[in-house]
Design brief:
The protein is an alpha+beta fold. It is 39% helix and 25% strand. One of its GO terms (molecular function) is metalloendopeptidase activity. Residues 8-509 form the Peptidase M50 domain.
């Protein structure tokens, strides 16, 4: 817990520091007297004064502030004439704009610098791997297979999604690695459109683990020597022809998420199967009383449709409304397509097949409604393989960082637009707990991931602060624009109302984000 708090502070501290530094430097540039520069809110843990400015480190590390002389526009008349040259309110509109915009601008510069450093030094990133390719999907029509690792686009090495999205001329050819061999495919698509198809198949691939009704656990491989733990069950299912598979019996108490070859015994038995289509392998294994681990029910939500129907942990799900199901993801997607109110689930309980009928809960998710039955899977997924990427060199890093920064800004703006119009639920907003979790997870994955996330959140912080909401930087910029249009300052009454509205809205958003965190993690 202490480690996660420490990582959170390391993550958030630079974001806050550079944002406030942007305001501070532009204020000093235009001759505004800065009274306080604080990282954090609340009681001051540490402070010192140099010149006119008090520098402080405060207790609550969720933000910071720069207190400038004369920053209250409602009290501008009370400032003595001889002091007005140091006052924020009495500076030109152009100067005030840059002082206010300086914070978000610094966040964008920080993101650029991080991207430049990552590209110049080289990154350790998850390899670009395709997840389960759906039947009759666009990817399938292009010849892309489940588990393909993306190596080159148009003959150029790639290591990051932006190498695809920003590719000049789009994706003409794609070289993939499949079962250790490379294959070049003809694609002819815009980079962004191909990437949109890619993310429909996220790399959540099942470990090659099977279970029996008695609870015995096996690893499956097409090698008689050892299990290749880099190959997922979903990749193995793409093999075609008559193939001999070897089953390695495993200790039930083994850590199935991180098991190593040395923990495996010699293969227990072998089966020779003829596979012609995507579900043939799992269909034939079912006849051998072998089931994918993710089809085993791990637990049930209290008072859920599944609990009411008598489904319990250890049951193995077989089908839905008469259709055989071979993955938990297929269970989830098929459930959404069923039009009938009642749903019939076929399952294996204590070695006996039985059918139960239930009525799924229907809950809103953004603009959509999703059906839920309250079942949790025992599935174990492959970990992401990290690979070292070479340096792009100074020029490549300098130019590539502009592309990455701009792409991040546009995608962030697009995400907020979806939130505003209701395409994305407000329940997706995360607060400090969510940020802390992803910061900790990324730190434990790789430093490259950690700094990439820092750049992303830096851009988010910059964009959020540009929202035209009073009390945010964007609200101050809006007042400056109105001042230009009206050829005079906004009236005291209107400004007071706007500030009260802005503060109330900001508090509501903060409370909503914290509430989402509590619901999500507790």
């Amino acid at each position: 817990m202490i480690e996660k708090i420490f990582i959170f502070i390391i993550f958030l501290g630079p974001l806050v520091f550079f944002h406030e530094l942007g305001h501070f430097l532009f204020a000093r540039l235009f001759g505004v007297r800065v009274q306080v520069f604080s990282i954090g809110f609340g009681p001051k843990l540490f402070k010192f004064k140099r010149g006119d400015t008090e520098y402080a480190l405060s207790l609550i590390p969720l933000g910071g502030y720069v207190k400038m002389f004369g920053d209250d526009p409602l009290a501008g008349d009370s400032i003595p004439e001889e002091e007005r040259r140091y006052s924020f309110t009495h500076k030109s509109k152009w100067a005030r704009f840059w002082i206010v915009f300086g914070g978000p601008f610094a966040n964008f510069i920080m993101a650029y610098v991080i991207f430049f450093a990552l590209l110049f030094v080289g990154e350790k990133l998850p390899e670009l791997k395709i997840g389960v390719v759906a039947e009759n999907s666009k990817l399938q029509s292009l010849g892309v297979y489940t588990g393909d690792v993306l190596r080159r686009v148009n003959g150029d090495d790639i290591s990051n999604p932006s190498d695809i999205v920003l590719k000049d001329g789009g994706v003409k050819t794609l070289t993939v690695e499949r079962f250790g061999a490379e294959k070049t495919l003809t694609i002819n698509m815009e980079g962004e459109k191909f990437f949109e198809e890619m993310i429909k198949s996220p790399p959540f691939l099942r470990r090659p683990i099977l279970t029996t009704p008695e609870g015995d656990v096996f690893a499956i491989s097409n090698s008689s020597e050892a299990v290749d733990w880099n190959e997922s069950l979903d990749e193995i299912a793409t093999l075609r022809g008559t193939i001999t598979f070897y089953l390695y019996k495993m200790d039930k108490k083994a850590n199935l998420a991180n098991i190593k070859v040395r923990e495996i015994r010699p293969f227990e038995k072998k089966v020779t199967l003829t596979i012609n289509s995507s579900n043939d392998l799992l269909k034939l294994l079912r006849k051998e009383k072998l089931y994918p681990k993710d089809m085993v029910v791990k637990s049930i939500s209290m008072k859920s449709p599944a609990e009411k129907a008598g489904i319990v942990g250890g049951n193995i799900i077989l089908g839905l409304n008469g259709k055989d199901i071979y993955s938990f993801e297929s269970l989830r997607s098929t459930l959404q397509l069923i039009k009938e109110k009642d749903v019939k689930i076929s399952l294996l309980a204590d070695g006996v097949i039985k059918n139960v009928t239930l009525i799924p809960d229907v809950k809103p998710q953004g603009k959509k409604k999703v059906k839920l039955i309250g079942v949790y899977s025992s599935g174990i997924f492959q970990g992401l393989k990290l690979v070292d990427t070479p340096s792009k060199g100074f020029v490549g890093s300098f130019l590539g960082s502009f592309g990455r920064t701009w792409e991040t800004i546009t995608k962030t703006v697009g995400s907020f637009k979806k939130l505003i119009v209701g395409d994305v639920s407000l329940k997706q907003i995360g607060g400090p707990l969510a940020i802390g979790k992803v910061a900790s997870d990324s730190f434990n994955t790789s430093l490259s991931y950690f700094f990439q996330l820092m750049a992303l959140i830096s851009v988010n912080l910059g964009v959020i602060n540009l929202f035209p909401i009073p009390v945010l930087d964007g609200g101050h910029i809006l007042f400056i624009i109105l001042e230009v249009i009206n050829r005079g300052p906004v009236s005291r009454r209107k400004m007071e109302i706007a500030q009260q509205f802005g503060l109330s809205l900001l508090l509501m958003l903060m409370i909503g984000a914290i509430f989402n965190d509590v619901v999500r993690f507790f």
